[in-house]
């Protein structure tokens, strides 16, 4: 049997890496140290470097209660080169996901923009998105416009468009269309003589109609009460046992009356 040749993994375009770095930023959980330390992201997940979620045993560490554990996994923090390696390790499987989900040929700009979007919204959201449906239908223009709908997150319980997410979506859309993504994302802005500091943004919420469907929980069918079959009496059982005669109650014995003595004769 001939061996099956698998298509080689496609490299992550450099422009996708640059876009992710620009918008993820590289926050430091402890600026007093030289190295980069873990920090708690808006999704309450312990993170390090450019959005690398810290896990233990395949489970993400969440909440302030896991601060010591997160820091113990990266004692003293990491170097920038180590952060680069973590990001590369995170992007390779995401590139494979994009290749699997997309049924049409993609140029580097389109491929890179989708990897950047996936890194932010997650596989489930991209797989259920109108963007992916339009793309796989061959409608590139309609797919490009769908980047812009992923710019809202919950702020104090209210779904709100966030400027940082809007800029990121515009940059990804521009890359997808082969345009200047840095200009579209308003990167490199200078305010009062200082480069604008990137903020750590929450994960956007899926728009209505693009939310992954929850798997329906199948209810176990109700058990039907099994009717008990009437047991046919055996021949032996069919023979009626002779009716037991109730013993006749004996009348209580009468006491003999005491004879009165005859009167004495005079």
List the helices and strands and how they pair.
Layout: H1 14-24, E1 39-40, E2 46-48, E3 52-53, E4 55-56, E5 59-60, H2 67-73, H3 80-101, H4 108-121, H5 123-127, H6 130-136, H7 140-145, E6 152-155, E7 158-161, H8 163-176, H9 181-184, E8 190-191, E9 194-195, H10 235-238
Antiparallel strand pairs: 1-2, 2-3, 4-5, 6-7, 8-9
Helix pairs in contact: 1-4, 3-4, 4-8
GO molecular function: lysozyme activity
Biased composition (Basic residues): 214-266
Keywords: Antimicrobial, Bacteriolytic enzyme, Glycosidase, Host cytoplasm, Hydrolase
Question: How is this structure best described in words?
Answer:
This protein has 266 residues and is mainly alpha-helical. It has a domain of 130 residues: Lysozyme, CATH 1.10.530.40. Helices cover 35% and strands 9% of the residues. It contains ten helices and nine strands. The strands form four sheets. It has a three-stranded antiparallel β-sheet with strand order 1-2-3. Strands 4-5 form a two-stranded antiparallel sheet. A two-stranded antiparallel ribbon has the order 6-7. Strand 6 and strand 7 form a beta hairpin. Helix 1 runs parallel beside helix 4 and helix 3 crosses helix 4.
